[in-house]
Design a protein that fits this description.
binds uridine-5'-diphosphate-xylopyranose; 14 strands; binds adenosine-5'-diphosphate; 6-stranded parallel sheet
């Protein structure tokens, strides 16, 4: 079977970049991204490429090449499904907030709704591909929804194959991860359907990097990869705290252990704890699954990775308060970076949210600057509007958005770096100190600034993982 038309349900951080690269590499395939969110679709169609809903280095160029040629964005979900040989499900799957499994299990309502829509609208044979990260055995749910529609007599000619093809891209490097993936994983048991998807990826990925597994291995591999990566971050953050207490330097320790080829040098940066839409959700999913199968020790083991991460986030705010003479009430603090990592406008699960909330709770006045996150998003995440002006000594904190670093630091007692944007490595500390109130502090929670230059300029410096 050769695929000529693709529909992807969900035009978010995963669906958008993934389909853009697929359209770019497969000009013979018509790719349509659909989403219920009309505002999001309008932004994908905006003539001004700086308004795309997802910021990723290189994404605008890919969209510019393909949009209108073989890459389309629409809210017409039904028509796009009917026309498609292959449908990708790339909808959101957040952690459940209420009911059975609340706080741990994934909320599958969007997956189920989109599977039902595919069941109703598809025509002929359709390959359905899970792209969203899902709990193990979700393909079974999708399969039963699809086969129920196959049973009804008026739909005799309708048939489906379900594949799992998890996405391993990391935000901020999505385009290069998609163009040059370490591996592409395809799980399923219909060899023809797998071949059809392999044929698509083969246009730009070498065959030895395309792995075939059964459905459940594929689903579990995605959860496992994220759990191992997150575990590495909790491990280095735990060691970072020990470095601070003992006089060791976490960067030196990371370099030393990373030289061991069995460990490798990547993913060893201490920081404010991991954020992003995947790690926490996927580990909690794994914990839920382990408990479901009666594996309490295994569940408890993975739970610790999340607990350590929460502890790391909480200790940052406490530490800032204690260094600033035990109170930040009414003090202006410049927060540099709000995205969960550099090179993205995504703030989901960003450690900045919890840290800023804790500081607001202590009565601080925050001046927040992020190169790609706007004030509306910050307000939504903090659950409060920006203040019209700076308040005096107050019990309740407040925040304002700062257009640039120098605006943020004006009259501030401290600079707190929460995201590793590369521009924060090149700050002019002499100019910054001149605008701050003394004693002025730098809390570099990412270890990205030129701490020596900051010290030389007269700042007191706290660096994550530095004893
Ligand atoms: C992750 C996985 O890397 C990706 O394969 C999967 O598809 C989705 O989840 P993502 O969350 O986009 O990707 O970014 P990632 O680079 O993994 O960073 C996650 C979090 O860990 C960020 O908050 C980042 O700042 C933090 N991190 C990462 C560290 O604190 N230290 C590190 O050394 C690396
Ligand atoms: P991810 O990071 O996994 O891409 P996002 O939340 O960025 O997650 O994107 C998921 C998108 O899926 C959202 O834009 C949401 O509107 C869309 N979506 C969810 N359910 C449906 C559905 N049934 N039909 C079309 N779009 C959907």
């Amino acid at each position: 079977m050769t695929v000529r038309t693709i529909c992807c349900i969900g035009a978010g951080y995963v669906g958008g970049p993934t389909m853009a690269v697929m359209a770019d590499r497969c000009p013979h395939i018509q790719v349509t991204l659909v989403d219920l969110n009309a505002e999001r679709i309008a932004a994908w169609n905006d003539a001004d490429l700086s308004k795309l809903p997802v910021y990723e280095p290189g994404l605008a160029d890919v969209v510019a090449r393909c949009r209108g040629r073989n890459l389309h964005f629409t809210t017409e979900v039904d028509g796009a499904i009917a026309a498609a040989d292959m449908v990708f499900l790339s909808v959101n799957t957040p952690t459940k907030r209420r009911g059975l499994g609340a706080g741990q299990a994934s909320d599958l309502r969007w997956i189920e709704a989109s599977a039902r829509q595919v069941a109703a609208q598809a025509m002929g044979h359709t390959i359905v591909v899970e792209k969203s990260t899902l709990p193990v055995r979700t393909a079974e749910t999708i399969q039963s929804i699809l086969s129920a529609s196959q049973d009804s007599s008026e739909a005799e000619s309708k048939t489906f194959s379900v594949l799992s093809n998890p996405e391993f891209l990391a935000e901020g490097t999505a385009i290069s991860d998609l163009e040059d993936p370490d591996r592409v994983l395809i799980g399923g048991d219909d060899a023809n359907a797998i071949d059809a998807l392999v044929e698509i990826y083969s246009r730009w990925v070498s065959p030895e990097r395309i792995l075939r597994t059964n459905l459940w291995s594929s689903e579990l591999s995605k959860l496992t990869a994220n759990a191992f990566l997150a575990q590495r971050i909790s491990s280095i953050n735990a060691i970072g705290a020990l470095c601070e207490a003992t006089g060791a330097d976490v960067k030196e320790v990371a370099r030393a252990i990373g030289a061991d080829s069995r460990l490798g040098p990547k993913f060893l940066s201490a920081g404010p704890g991991f954020g992003g839409s995947c790690f926490r959700k996927d580990i909690l999913n794994l914990v839920y699954l382990c408990r479901h199968y009666g594996l309490e020790q295994a569940a408890h083991y993975w739970e610790q990775v999340v607990d350590l991460n929460s502890w790391q986030q909480q200790r940052i705010a406490r530490l800032v308060v204690s260094r600033l003479f035990g109170t930040v009430s009414g003090k202006r603090l410049a927060v540099l970076g709000f995205a969960f990592k550099a090179d993205t406008n995504d703030t989901r699960e960003s450690p900045a949210i919890g840290i800023c909330r804790d500081l607001l709770e202590e009565g601080a006045h925050l001046a927040i600057h992020d190169p790609k996150v706007g004030p509306d998003q910050v307000a939504a995440d903090l659950g409060r509007e920006a203040a019209a002006s700076r308040l005096g000594l107050a019990d309740e904190g407040s925040w304002q958005s700062a257009a640039g670093v120098l605006d943020a630091v004006e009259g501030a007692d401290a600079v707190i770096v929460l995201t590793e944007w590369h521009q924060f490595a090149e700050l002019d500390w002499t100019a910054i100190v001149a605008r701050m109130r003394r004693p002025a502090w730098l809390f570099d929670v990412r270890g990205v600034t030129d701490a020596e230059a900051a010290r030389a300029a007269g700042l007191r410096v706290w660096l994550v993982g530095e004893g």
